[in-house]
Design a protein that fits this description.
By secondary structure, this protein is α/β, with parallel strands linked by helices. It has a single domain, classed as 3-Layer(aba) Sandwich (Rossmann fold). Helices cover 33% and strands 20% of the residues.
């Protein structure tokens, strides 16, 4: 089995659900701007696609982190647009962000890349027709992990950094994470009771101290973004304790958050659960990003 097969199946369910309500791009009234370059790595471009509503745009932007197993693959944006219909139809502008992909690049690289994407979008918010103070992020599995990392470790900009872009904040104002790992210390090589499946993910070749640095669970603080957690109780790849533990940590720090558990769902959601989860997602962003 390929390491990102489960993620791909999750996306197919996501697309199938949205696709039942889809038409052409014109019917959806969405403008697609592909392959916007937000940085470079080893001579390679880091890119995102933009899905902009052409009617009733609400000025809020939502980043979708394209990542499963910390692999970040390119797909024609026309094939991805169905994933975002629930958001674009409500006026949200969506950014499909790709990061440096495993196995060539690891989790530290992915985190640095998604941070840069937020800084770039915020700095160029006027160009994209969004409010720089109303940015949300969501992702699935590893994409959910990276979304939570942004929500728990964002900064206000690095004033002394030589790169002008890094002086811009990478904070987000709302997070939604599907089936997201929150504690990498239980997943890296040498971890006690590590699940055998984690050996298939090269990005998890970290020592325990590095794993802690990149685990959202250990960075929860009172100024974190409002966060919605969506998790399957029968998930055997990212067990439910990942989401229950960070939910408890958010509660302890009085961070606005909500955990929705799906009793019959695993690492992928059946259509009925996915439909309900999408309703939760849209409602969360409406509540926390709209004026």
């Amino acid at each position: 089995m390929k390491t990102h097969l489960v993620y791909s199946l999750f996306l197919l369910t996501f697309l199938a659900l949205c696709g039942s309500r889809l038409g052409s791009a014109a019917e959806l009234k969405v403008k697609i701007t592909p392959d916007v370059v937000y940085g470079h790595k080893d001579g390679l471009a880091l890119t995102f696609d933009v899905f902009t509503p052409t009617e009733n745009a609400n000025g809020a932007g939502v980043l979708f982190i394209v990542s499963g197993g910390w692999y970040s693959n390119w797909s024609p944006p026309e094939k991805l647009q169905g994933m975002f219909t629930a958001l674009t139809s409500k006026g949200f502008t969506v950014f499909a962000v790709r990061h440096g992909s495993s196995p060539r690049y690891g989790i530290p690289d992915a985190v640095a890349d998604v941070r840069r994407s937020v800084r770039f979008i915020r700095k160029n918010a006027e160009q994209f027709g969004v409010d720089p103070n109303r940015l949300g992020v969501f992702g699935i599995s590893a994409g959910g992990h990276l979304s939570l990392t942004l929500g728990t470790t964002g900064d206000d900009g690095l004033a002394s950094d030589a790169d002008p872009l890094n002086k811009t904040s990478d904070r987000v104002q709302a997070v939604v994470a599907f089936v997201a790992p929150t504690d990498l210390t239980v997943a890296v090589k040498g971890a006690k009771d590590r699940l055998p499946a984690y050996g298939r993910f090269p990005a998890l070749n970290l020592d325990v101290s590095q794993a802690k640095v990149y685990s959202p669970l250990f960075h929860v603080s009172a100024d974190d973004a409002p966060t919605l957690l969506l998790a399957g109780v029968k998930d055997d790849l990212v067990p439910i304790f990942h989401n229950r533990n960070i939910h408890a940590a958010f509660d302890e720090k009085q961070v606005v958050n909500k955990l929705v558990e799906y009793p019959e769902a695993g690492h992928g959601f059946p259509p009925a659960d996915m439909q309900q989860a999408m309703t939760e997602l849209v409602g969360w962003f409406e509540k926390h990003l709209l004026k």
